[in-house]
Amino acid sequence: MANQAAKKQAQSNAKLLQTFLYGSAGVTIFHLLFNLIFFFSSFGFWSVTIWIAFTLSYVFFFSAFASLGRASYVNGELVSAGADLGGKGLTEYAWDVIYILWFTEVTGVFSYYFYLALLTVPGYAFFKAWNGFIYPWITRSANTEEIKGRKALRAEKKGAKGK
């Protein structure tokens, strides 16, 4: 029963990687076949360029996830389950980007305007940066008082009582 949580984590990571691989392969094959069958006459440089860009982004995310979630074994025994690929934080944002990529690649075969959905990724990143860092930094008042520690407050009280 030792290391049971790590074993579950390793299985969960393997399942997520398999889901990502099958999803990306299915979406990519759909994109390629749909364009070749229905839009063969307009299947040219830009269609191939878009297809290669999506494929390279999937390769990047898969290699990043595979290295993050790789389980480590020593003598057949699990030492480390790797990072939680289904957890909160940056991996959660990465999964959101992957879902947007899948949506855009599937719907992009019907109209190139769907590729504008990819702008949500830098738009959301700017939104988070603006609300979390830029706006508070810009609107910070120049004459704000520093927060005093307990010792400084005690010293002030003693000084006020002595007068």
Automatic annotation (TrEMBL):
The lineage of its organism: Eukaryota, Amoebozoa, Evosea, Variosea, Cavosteliida. Keywords: Endoplasmic reticulum, Membrane, Transmembrane, Transmembrane helix. It is found in: Endoplasmic reticulum membrane. GO terms for biological process: vacuolar protein processing. Belongs to the TMEM208 family. Coiled coil: none annotated. It comes from Planoprotostelium fungivorum. It is a multi-pass membrane protein. One of its GO terms (cellular component) is endoplasmic reticulum membrane. Signal peptide: none annotated. This is Putative opsin. The chain crosses the membrane at residues 20-41, 48-68.
